[in-house]
Amino acid sequence: MRMIIWTLVGAAVGFFGMYAALSIDFKAGFLPIGFELNIVLIAITLLLFVFIAVSSAQMKKKAGLTLTGVDEDERDMWQYKKFSDLNLCNTIALIVSIVAIGVAIITDQPAWLLLTSGGILLLSIVFSMLVPGLMKAVYPDRELPSASEKNFAKKLLDASDEGERFVMLQGYYKTFNTMNLSLIIALMLFILYSVGTGDSQLFSIFIVGLILIVTNAQYLLTIRNK
Amino acid sequence: MRTRLKELRARDGLNQTELAKLAKVSRQTISLIEREEFVPSLLIAKRIAHIFDETIECIFIFDEEEL
C-alpha cells in the first residue's frame, strides 16, 4: 500500500514537474560566457596542477625519512590519504581540462585559448601517467606494477591485499550506485532540456543510455558468470 | 568479532607498519582488522597468530551468536 502511494506521489510530482518545465521558456546558452568559462576552467586545472606538484614533492620527501613507532604509522596514514587526494585532483584536472577544450572548440574561442586548453589537456594526461608512479616511491618494498605496464589497473588490483580490496569494493559499489542514479537523472535532464529549449540532446541521450546498458550488463554478467 | 591485535602489538612493541610487513599485508589491512571493520582470511589470521605465538582463537574472539 505504501509503495502504491509513493508511486502515485512520484507520478504526480513527475507530471506537474514536466508540465511546469514545458511551460517555462529557458535557454542555457554558453556562447556569451564561453571565454570567461574557459579561463575559469583553465585556472582551476592550473591550481590542481600546483597542488599535485607540491603534494608529490611532500610525499617524496616524507618517504625518504627514517621513522619508527607511532611516527612511522602516522607517516603511512598521511601518505595514504595524500595519495588518494592526489589521485582525486588528478582525475578532476583531467576531466576539467577535457571540458575546457570542449568549451573552447564549441564556443569558437580564439586560437591562443584553444592552444592553451590543448596544452593543459596534454599536461593533465602527463600528470595522470606520472601520479601512479608515486606509489613506488611511497611503498618501495612492495611489488607494484609500473603505470606504463599493460593492464595496469588489473595488475594493481592483483597486487593489493584482501583488506585493500575490501575497501576498494566498498568504494566501487558506492560509486556504481551513484553513477547509475546520476546517469538516469542526467537522461531526464537532457530530455527536459531538449523539450524546454528545442535544442535536441538526442545524441547525448543515446550515449548516456548506451553507457548505462553497457556498465550494468558488464556488472551483472560478471556476477552471473561466477 | 573482537580482536586483541592492538594489545598484542603493544606487548611485543610492534607498530602497525612493522606488523604489516611481518604478516605480508598492508598497514591499512592491519588497521581495518584492529578497528574490527574487517575479518581477515584464515591465512592472514594464521600468520598473525604465528607472529604473536598465540592461537587464532586467542587473538580473534567471536561472540556465540556469530558462530
Automatic annotation (TrEMBL), chain A:
Name of a matching Pfam family: DUF3169
Membrane-spanning residues: 33-54, 86-106, 112-134, 178-196, 202-221
Assigned keywords, A-Z: Membrane, Transmembrane, Transmembrane helix
Top-rank taxon: Bacteria
InterPro entries: DUF3169
Name recorded for this polypeptide: DUF3169 family protein
Naturally occurring in which organism (per UniProt): Sporosarcina ureae
TrEMBL record, chain B:
UniProt keyword annotation of DNA-binding present: yes
UniProt keywords, alphabetically: DNA-binding
SMART domains: HTH_XRE
Ranges in a coiled coil: none
Residues covered by the HTH cro/C1-type domain: 5-59
InterPro entries: Cro/C1-type_HTH, Lambda_DNA-bd_dom_sf
This protein's name: Transcriptional regulator
Taxonomic source organism: Sporosarcina ureae
